[in-house]
From TrEMBL:
Iron-sulfur found in the keyword field: yes
Catalytic reactions of this protein: benzoyl-CoA + NADPH + O2 + H(+) = 2,3-epoxy-2,3-dihydrobenzoyl-CoA + NADP(+) + H2O
PROSITE patterns: 4FE4S_FER_1, 4FE4S_FER_2, FAD_FR
Binding positions (NADP(+)): S225, K245, T300, S357, R358, K364, G393, L394, E432
InterPro entries: 4Fe4S_Fe-S-bd, 4Fe4S_Fe_S_CS, Benzoyl_CoA_Oase_BoxA, FAD-bd_FR_type, Flavoprot_Pyr_Nucl_cyt_Rdtase, FNR, FNR_nucleotide-bd, OxRdtase_FAD/NAD-bd
Gene name, Swiss-Prot/TrEMBL: boxA
Residue ranges constituting the 4Fe-4S ferredoxin-type domain according to the UniProt record: 11-40, 42-69
PANTHER family: PTHR43314
Organism: Achromobacter kerstersii
Gene3D superfamilies: 3.30.70.20, Nucleotide-binding domain of ferredoxin-NADP reductase (FNR) module (3.40.50.80), Translation factors (2.40.30.10)
Cofactor(s), names only, from the UniProt record: FAD
Protein name: Benzoyl-CoA oxygenase component A
Length: 434
């Protein structure tokens, strides 16, 4: 635990603008609405933040895990933080700060030493507070795990940053949805040549689109999940693939031009791209033999599922694979990415369940409907300690999926709240929604 802080000393929570990829995870996660953003930065309001740490585990880049010991009356304001391009250097606390507060300088030094451990201690010490904030922080429970499966391989993160990105070369760009559909989704392959860019299934990268925003500042990175396994889109090659949907309208249906998605979908072979990352240290697949995967996704949320499935496919003859069960949602078959290759996979290798919501002549079905229809098989896998569940797609699917899993569990007389907690603590239930 952290040493007690003097009354007028604040352990201020800051977000590193050089690493942050503006994915909005922290703002959505914060239970007290202490995090906000403008067109430049994501920031933490020191007058609201209570140090509950809820935002730390979900951050894919670690940019959220920055802390500074400050005199409370000198804390960086929200407006200060909005103007940053990088974190300011740490200020030395005056020795009198601890003495006047009835403590001593050693307490401040001890707290400063422990600051670097805040991120790793967060799961064990969620009650760590900043300054004189109340110890009674609001309870907050994430739907999924904040730790990876116990057997997951070690991930490398933040090897390349905004200041020092990696240059990748486009070696392929293919549309993977029907040409006659509105859903223009591309499979894009990037090659890194002789430079190292180690990745794992479930991780993501950031793409820096060229040009500047409305304020004249360079565009921030956009995050994309990997669609290829750890040994490359082509086995043995230093490359990877992304699944990118061209954005032409917002969630309300109004016309909108996705800066990075359109840039990526228009790339030609031999074009170069600026890449940062990799990111992600929890949404990782298990690495031990006979591990089962339940994969639930919609649209481009299929990217990490494709990566994991391909990893299993490449070792199909080793006998190390467990069971694979996929629930994949789209409006129609023509709008379902990778539909052709998916249908060619052996039925005894992967159990595929397609939920089509607008297929002509068929009733609307969503992934949660199919989970209920396959309750027996889902329940069998849920009760197997070798099973990990992955959910990727639109944020709105979280509630429906959790409701379906709860119903399936209750049908067997099990307590979903207990199982849910076990799945989270053991790193076996993961959400990556947007």
């Amino acid at each position: 635990m952290n040493a007690p802080l003097p009354v007028e000393v604040l352990k201020q929570h800051l977000i590193d603008p050089e690493i942050c990829i503006r994915c909005n995870t922290c703002e959505e996660t914060c239970p007290v609405d202490a995090i906000t953003h403008d067109s430049n930065n994501y920031v933490v309001d020191p007058d609201i933040c209570n140090g509950c740490m809820a935002c730390v585990p979900p951050c894919p880049t670690g940019s959220i895990d920055n802390w500074r010991l400050m005199l409370r009356n000198e804390a960086y304001s929200v407006q200060d933080q909005f103007g940053w391009e990088e974190l300011p250097k740490e200020k030395a606390l005056p020795e009198t700060a601890a003495v006047d507060a009835g403590g001593d300088a050693a307490a401040a030094d001890a707290a400063a030493v422990d600051t670097a451990a805040v991120g790793t201690a967060a799961a064990d010490a969620p009650g760590v507070m900043t300054g004189a904030a109340s110890a009674a922080a609001p309870a907050f429970s994430l739907p999924g795990a904040s730790v990876p499966p116990w057997s997951a391989a070690h991930p490398y993160v933040n090897l390349y940053t905004h200041k020092a990105p990696m240059t990748a070369t486009v070696v392929g760009n293919y549309r993977v949805t029907g040409a006659d559909t509105e859903s223009d989704i591309h499979h894009i392959v990037l090659d890194f040549g002789e430079l190292p860019f180690p990745v794992l299934e479930g991780q993501s990268i950031g793409i820096l689109p060229p040009g500047v925003d409305a304020q004249g500042r360079p565009h921030h990175a956009r995050q994309y999940s990997l669609a290829s396994p750890r040994d490359g889109e082509r086995a043995g090659y230093n490359n990877l693939s992304l699944t990118v949907k061209r954005v032409t309208e917002d969630h309300g249906g109004a016309a909108a031009h996705g800066v990075c998605s359109n840039y990526l979908c228009d790339l030609a072979k031999n074009d170069t791209v600026q890449v940062i990352g990799p990111f992600g240290h929890t949404f990782l697949m298990p690495n031990h033999p006979r591990a089962n995967l339940i994969m639930i996704c919609t649209g481009t949320g299929s990217a990490p599922m494709r990566a994991m499935t391909e990893r299993y496919r490449r070792r199909i003859d080793t006998g190390d694979n467990g069971r694979l069960m996929l629930f994949f949602g789209a409006r129609t078959e023509r709008e379902l990415p990778y539909f052709g290759p998916l249908m060619k996979l052996p039925r005894d290798f992967i159990d595929i369940n397609l939920a089509l919501s607008r297929e002509p002549g068929q009733p609307k079905r969503y992934v949660q409907d199919l989970i209920r229809e396959r309750a027996g098989q889902v329940r069998e896998l849920l009760l197997d300690r070798n099973t990990c569940i992955y959910v990727c797609g639109l944020k709105g699917m979280e509630v429906g999926v959790l409701d379906a899993l709860r119903e399936v569990t209750m049908q067997s007389g099990q307590d979903w709240s207990i199982l849910h907690d076990v799945l989270r603590r053991e790193g076996r239930l993961h959400f990556e929604t947007y």
